[in-house]
Design brief:
elongated; alpha+beta; Deoxyribonuclease I, Chain A
Length: 196
């Protein structure tokens, strides 16, 4: 989520007073326009509006990220004004992959703002392109159901007297279903026209 909060802290006040139903938020970043000694070591004061910001971040299970190298995020055009840290990143709490960010002051060029950068790892995903299926009302469906029913009818529950015997009976039943499914089903390609 990217936020711009003006000098009146409008976005922060809005988020504080509004119930946002956002789940699995990984990052909250933006220009929060808050000067605070918590994230700017050259600034000696604490701003109470940052309490609202931390409460908002906490409601999303996010915590303040500290950059690998401390640097200003906003550079002043006026030599008499200080450079500031007002752009922040909040990351998912206790995340091993997302735990820090970089500030690139050398990249701000004609802008007054230094870019903040974070590397988000993208896990390789295996996309299934085949599945096994049995056609409804086919001979294979009848054979599959009969095989499962026949095995189920033979299960002797009177001999199941403890957990290990119950687990063994369930495992045997699962194996019969799996073997029967493999025997009577066929492998088909999944396409955009496939039924869920």
């Amino acid at each position: 989520m990217n936020i711009y909060s003006d000098s009146s802290y409008s976005a922060i006040k809005y988020l504080k007073d509004t119930e946002c139903n956002l789940r699995n938020l990984l990052i909250m970043t933006g220009d929060f326009n808050i000067h605070n000694s918590l994230w700017d070591l050259s600034y000696s004061h604490y701003s109470s509006i940052s309490d609202h910001l931390f409460a908002i971040a906490n409601s999303f299970n996010l915590s303040l990220s500290y950059p690998t190298d401390q640097a200003p995020t906003r550079y002043s055009n006026n030599a008499n004004d200080s450079n500031l840290v007002i752009d922040l990143i909040f990351l998912q709490c206790d995340s091993l992959e997302l735990n820090t960010h970089l500030i690139h002051p050398e990249w701000y060029l004609t802008s007054n703002y230094a870019p903040l950068m974070i590397i988000i790892p993208i896990v390789e995903e295996h996309i299934v392109t085949h599945k096994r299926t049995i056609t409804k009302n086919s001979d294979e469906e009848v054979k599959f159901i009969n095989k499962v029913i026949a095995f189920f009818a033979k299960v002797d529950v009177l001999n199941v007297v403890n957990i290990s015997e119950l687990e063994e009976a369930i495992s045997n039943f699962a194996n019969i279903i799996d073997c029967s499914w493999t025997k009577y089903s066929k492998l088909v390609n999944i396409t955009k026209h496939s039924k869920s």
